[in-house]
Each structure stands twice: as structure tokens, then as C-alpha cells.
Amino acid sequence: MEYLLFLLLGGVISVLSGFFGVGGGFILTPVLLLIGFAPLEAIATSLFFSIGTSLSGIGAHFRLKNILWKEGAILGVSGMLATQAAKPLVLFLSEKGLDATVIPACYIVLLSYFAFTMFRQGKKTGEQSREGRPSLAGMLLIGFSGGFVSAALGVGGGFIMVPLSIAFLGLQPRKAVGTSLFAVLLIVSTGFLSYASAVEISYLTAILLVAGGLVGSQAGAWLTNFYKNKDISLLLSGLYIATLLSVVFKLVHHNLIGIVLLSLFITYFFFLSLSKIIRKKEAEA
After folding, report:
1. Structural domain of 81
2. What global pTM score does this model have?
3. Which positions, given as ranges, span the membrane (predicted)?
4. Has residue 202 been placed in a domain?
5. How many structural domains are present in the chain?
6. CB 45 within 8 A of CB 28
7. DSSP-assigned letters across all residues of the chain
8. Least confident piece of the model among 17-21, 135-139, 219-223, 278-282
9. Residues 214, 200: contact at Cβ < 8 Å?
């Protein structure tokens, strides 16, 4: 039964990963913390999971022509360098017994900012988002930020790079999602390898999560075809808020409430997507 739950969890999170281009780790890490994983084990497991979901999502977005390869490589390489700067900090926090407090607190700050950023972006621009020419300095800075946070919090880095790429590089949400997944693959691979020798994780659990995610990320990328750019931005804001609240309740030892809130958002997303698919099929009939 436990194995089936991890398969299902991997599938659900990877649908969100493929849809939002966030690698899946920023959702999985809080969930693993909520169900009792130690912070370092949750980080390493999430990085491993993000490798699988990113690979699967890249395949889907490649077919949809949503990946800007040069921009993704710049974001990814700068992020890879940043992962090596973050690892010593995380190990230091673990040694001092501060990881269980500092890591969730960092999540709260970042999720608050990006929830507001994507909500404002979705309300302001709609389908009129400009298709900009990203600056090299901007891509390097965003990639480094994504990589540092990836290794520090056990996330893919996409949950930072996607909103920043939309807001400051001028990328359309679909392009930001696909490009981010390519950068995330480079970042999480480096981050995981840096932790693999220092942290003991359950590879069976990690593989089950990835197995469930191989199909889910494909489905998530496909679902972007049923949404407008502004809707993707607004839904991403909602996902950040739900994840933020789950982490807050984790800190005050109300894990069940956090799980329920995150589950409610995910349920809403799947019902909304199903209704859009049905309406489109009816319109084509």
C-alpha cells in the first residue's frame, strides 16, 4: 500500500511539474517534510525525483516547441555552479540542528514573493506578454538564484526561474515553462550528485516517485494547450499560496491541515483541467 501511495504521489506532483515547469521538487519537499522525512533526506529525494520529471517534461515540451535551448543552457550552467555554493550551507545548518526551522522559513519567504509576482503578472498582462530578448546578465543571475535555492531547499529551481523569466526576461509562460525544465535538469543532476555521497536516502522510495512521475509530466505539458498564458500565471500563484500555507502549518505542528490545503488546490486544478478538456471536445464535436 505504501508503495502505491508513493507511485500516486509521484504521478500527481509530476502533472503539476509538467504544467508549471517547476521540476516538482518544490512541491515534493514540503510534502515529504509533512509526512515525516528528515530535511536532508527530503532534499536529496526531491532532487532525484526532479531529474526524472524534468527528463519526461522536456520530451513533451520539445514536441510542443516550448524550449529555448540557448537560454536554458545559460540558466542551467549558472545554476549548476550555484549548487556547489549552497551545499556547505545546508550541511552546516544540519550540523547545528537549524535545518528543520530555517529551510521551511526560507520556503515561506520565497513562496510569498513569487505568489504575489505571478498573481500580478497574470492580472496585468494576460495574453499580451511581450516576447523579449533575454539579457545575458539577467539569465546568469536568475540561473544562479535558481541553482542556489535548488540545492539549499531540494527543489528544481524552476519555481524561481519560471516567474522571474516571465517577469524580467519577457518570456511567454509556455516558453518559460519548457526552457526552465531544461535548465532544471542540469541543476538538479548536479545538486543530487553533490548530496548522494553525504546523505542516506531510500532509493526505492525515490524510484517509485519517479516511476509515477514519468507519465504525469507528459500529461502536465499537454494540459498547457487548454489554458491561456494568464491562466497559467494565476494558477501558478495559487499553487505557491497553497504550498506556502502547508509549510506554515508544518512549522506550527499542524501537518494534517497543511496536507489538506495542498490537496484541495490539487483537486481544484484537476477538476478545472478536466472541465476544459470536456468543453474543448464538445466544441470540436
Report:
1. 1-243
2. 0.67
3. 6-35, 42-62, 74-93, 100-119, 139-164, 176-195, 201-223, 232-249, 255-274
4. yes
5. 1
6. yes
7. -HHHHHHHHHHHHHHHHHHHTSTTHHHHHHHHHHTT--HHHHHHHHHHHHHHHHHHHHHHHHHTT---HHHHHHHHHHHHHHHHHHHHHHHHHHHTT-HHHHHHHHHHHHHHHHHHHHHHHHHHHGGG-------HHHHHHHHHHHHHHHHHHTS-SHHHHHHHHHHHS---HHHHHHHHHHHHHHHHHHHHHHHHTTS---HHHHHHHHHHHHHHHHHHHHHGGGS-HHHHHHHHHHHHHHHHHHHHHHHTT-HHHHHHHHHHHHHHHHHHHHHHHHHHHHHH-
8. 17-21
9. no
List the one residue out of 239, 220, 137, 152 whose CA is nearest residue 187.
152
Q: Looking at the domain assignment, is residue 157 inside a domain?
A: yes
Domain annotation covers residue 138: yes
Cell of residue 158, nine digits: 524552476
Distances (CA, A) of 197 to 36, 48, 200, 233, 257: 22, 13, 8, 37, 34
Amino acid, single-letter form, for residue 276: K
- pLDDT number for residue 128: 46
pLDDT the model gives residue 23: 58
pLDDT band (50, 70, 90) for residue 122: low
Query: How large is the average pLDDT for residues 210-237?
Result: 82
